[in-house]
Amino acid sequence: MITVGIDVGSITTKAVLLNGTTWQSLLLPTGCSPRDAGKSVFEQILDRASLSPADVDCVVGTGYGRISLPFIDKAITEITCHARGALHLVNGTDMVIDIGGQDSKVIMIDEQGRVINFAMNDKCAAGTGRFLQVMAAVLGADVSDLADLARGAEPVQISSMCTVFAESEVVSLLAQGVSKERIISGIHRSVAGRVASMAGRLGRGRRITFTGGVARNGGVREFLARELGQEVTVAPEPQMAGAIGAALLARDRCKH
Amino acid sequence: MRPSMMKIFDNLRDQNILDLEHAKRDNKKVVGMYCAYSPQELALAAGAIPVSLCGTKNEPVAAAEKVLPRNLCPLIKSSFGFAITDTCPYFRFSDFLVADTTCDGKKKMFEILSSIKPMHVLHLPQGTDRPGALGWWLEEIRVLKDKLEENLGATIDEDGLRAAIKLTNRERQVMRKLHEMNRLDPAPLSGVDLLTATWLRSFSVDKAEGIELVEQLIEEIQEIAEKGLSPFRPGTPRILLTGCPVGSGSEKVLKLVEECGGSVVCLENCSGIKTQVYLIDEDESKDPLEAIAERYLQIPCSCMSPNPGRLELISKLIDEYRVDGVVDLTWQACHTYNVEAELVRQLIKDKFGLPYIQLETDYSTSDVEQLKTRVAAFIEMMDRS
């Protein structure tokens, strides 16, 4: 059986092709058209596997752009997909922390990877990948280098949760001569603190798995573990969790 | 399948406004009421038409924010905005306003509003578990009676009150019966239609006519249900909506739940069944004002402390309507419902083990996409297909 999961996020679009027990993945920037990004990631992953759409038994779309995909069989929210994907990636997961481009969520799951409870950030960008991107731009750094730049530095206090206010706070810290390393470390702690308090409202997990693009940032992971007083496991290929979950849910659908 | 009667309800708002205009021309008085605690029987007994002025639309919010703080509940801002912009026909038709000291935001807003039109604000007790609570409230109802008589130039007598009680009790019973049709699985009426059909009771000039319309609707629903028809497929998650009031214009969460694959089988809020479950005692040997006071004080609103009645009602409704999950709606900056949500969450989790979600939002459409993801994920938790 061949199924595909497409996760159209705010920054990147991911596809996972599941063929029996093996899977392959692909990631592209979403750009300005989620619909086109979803279409091209689907075409490209099929191309690589030398398959045509007719070979695929079921396609599930997820992520904020899921509604705009005309070729999918079903749209399922990223919350349900991440839950399923995270359990597949890290055995025994009962709490998923996902920090993506424009939202962050904490999901409690059962042994089958089904959602028991979840919390999601409100309207603003605090505690999301976008927050890190904006801060990286102010500091003239690439977002993927932030963790290396901050390594070991004592975090400075960033008190604004709001992305716009935090940006001016960072500018004034730079003007005061505070080192970039300490500021970045402070930014990591701020993101982690925000998400940890959301997790605290849901209760305690025995095994916490970290997914989404921000999970690639070791600094945020470290502060998350510190704030929660628990180990936080980064899922292998953390950005793929949603698409993997979607492909698995597509397989479940076919079996019915 | 949607009952064909619903078309009549869809157009009832315009009809109600026309009827009201005619009634005003015939020198009928109109009493605008802001809250479910305001006893409409007193207005009816005074020969006036009670209408609800609780703001449920987003349009006047911007105007209200020129005077009121932005960080205030949209219901208060909408109610106030309608009044200062004179864009609500029901407000314009009102000769006298009746309000209640429910939450802090409302009671202070009423102080500003009272300069626009003559108004009386009923003082509610803080809770119902003190020996003096009912006596206090009865005294307040008596003061209201005097105020209405004085301002409307009418007399409110016992016969008038008893007739009004009989009429509003009939209305409550028929609304309850309509609601109870949705105990069937799958529900024969969508939550959005249930709201449309019950909402208009607060604006009709002739209550008896309104009751008859709802009776006809119930008959049609019974026929539909007998054929096993429903707008929902079997297995659709059955949702209880509780929390802040929802009305025409502020049904965004209700709509979202149904768009995302749920069926809102029961509305617990004060625009729904909360205000219909308790009838007024019709015992002829009882002072009607006392019977009215008793009944209205039973309404389990979060402005009461403590408010065990709401948790009891929710528990009952979960069983009666075979509910799969509970959506608790909180309007932004509504502190009483927002804080009470924790007690509701505990009840739903500990006693029923059902999925529960609290959604905090306002009347605007700015957060619809984010809400949609949350609501859809919540429905997916219960999906039995």
TrEMBL record, chain A:
InterPro entries xref list: ATPase_BadF, ATPase_NBD, CoA_E_activase_dom, Dehydratase_Activator_Redct
Domain ATPase BadF/BadG/BcrA/BcrD type: 4-250
Keyword Transcription listed: no
Cofactor: [4Fe-4S] cluster
The organism's place on the tree of life at top rank: Bacteria
Alphabetic keyword roster: Hydrolase, Iron, Iron-sulfur, Metal-binding
EC number in record: 3.-.-.-
Molecular function per GO: hydrolase activity; iron-sulfur cluster binding; metal ion binding
UniProt keyword annotation of Iron present: yes
Subunit description: Homodimer.
Protein name: R-phenyllactate dehydratase activator
Organismal lineage: Bacteria, Bacillati, Bacillota, Clostridia, Eubacteriales
Automatic annotation (TrEMBL), chain B:
GO MF annotation, one: iron-sulfur cluster binding
Keywords for the protein's UniProt record, in alphabetical order: Iron, Iron-sulfur, Lyase, Metal-binding
Native source organism of the sequence: Pelotomaculum schinkii
Gene3D superfamilies: 1.20.1270.370, 3.40.50.11890, 3.40.50.11900
Enzyme class: lyase
Protein's name according to its UniProt entry: R-phenyllactate dehydratase beta subunit
Family from the record: Belongs to the FldB/FldC dehydratase alpha/beta subunit family.
Cofactor(s) essential for the protein: [4Fe-4S] cluster
EC number: 4.2.1.-
Pfam families: HGD-D (PF06050)
Coiled coil: none
